[in-house]
Structure formats: C-alpha cells, structure tokens
Amino acid sequence: KLHAGVDGSPRSRDAAALAEGLATACGADLLLVCAYQDPLLPVPVVAHAGGDAVHELHRLRATWAPSAHTATVPDYSPAHGLRRTATDHDADLLVLGSGRRIAEGHAGAGRTGRQVLHHSTCAVAFAAAGLHETPFRLRRIVAGVNGWPEGDAMFTGDSAPEGAVVAVGKS
Predict the structure, then answer these.
(1) Rounded distance, CA 98 to CA 10, Å?
(2) What is the mean pLDDT of each run of 10 residues along the chain (171 residues)?
(3) Could you tell me the pTM of the whole model?
(4) Which of 85, 124, 140, 150 is spaced 20 to 30 Å from 168 by Cα?
C-alpha cells in the first residue's frame, strides 16, 4: 500500500506523480492523503481548510494520480495526520514532496518531511523537486536500510518493477 501526502503545492504534485508511477509499476494501491490543521483545534491554522482539501485532492487525483483513492485528514499537525493515516491503513511507503529549499532535480526533506520521519511506522520517500513537470519512467530504485529484518525483507521476492535496478546501502 502506498500513500502520498499532498497539499496542492508543486512539491506535492511531485509526490503524487512519483507515487502513481510506483503504484503502477508495483501493482500497489495508492491513497492520496491531504492532512491539514483542523481550525477547530486550539492551534493556529496554517494549512488548507477541509473544503479546500477535498477540492484539491480531486484535482490532484484527476491530473497526477488517476488510479488513487483519496482521504482528507484533519489533525493538530499535517505531519501527525500523515503518520497516523499511514499507521491506521498499514501503509508500506509514504511518498512526500521535497522541501521548498531543495533544488530542482534533487530530493530531500523539508520541515513537514522531517516531522513525518520521526516515529514513522513505514518507509518514507521524497520525490525529486520538479518531477511532475516532465514525463518519467521508473528505472532505478535506491534504498537505504539499516540491517534490521524489516529492511532486509523488503528485497525478498519480486518487490521491484520489471527491469528496475535496485541499489541497496546498509548503514
């Protein structure tokens, strides 16, 4: 099961495009998740309101991930909402867009991404900035694992798309 965190930003379009490519290549189910700060919670609102989130999800699905299901998740923080949804739905991978300060063509965590990485119950991938702007074909999967059984288990069987090169780095 794949999840992609989306919020309407260009970087979340990158996440949706990568997640759609991975889901198609691996035959996996895809859930686009828009986690937003709930205005009824006693914290400052800095994200989309619920109605905007639903509209944005449908627009993203139609354009970047037509095979995806969608979910809007109100929470006290988008990062917590994404982690909670991944845990509740037993996600194998959560795909996020790169941070705003990451250069085009590169991938890396921004503030929300770093918050998601803490206590995440599944693998987290970051889409390269600008990925949605050009057609791409999945040719190589690079994964870093720490030698724990869960990391080693992800490379047993036919987990990679046909013809893909899988590079593994252990810490």
Answers:
(1) 10
(2) 91 92 90 84 48 74 84 91 96 94 92 92 92 80 66 56 48 42
(3) 0.78
(4) 85
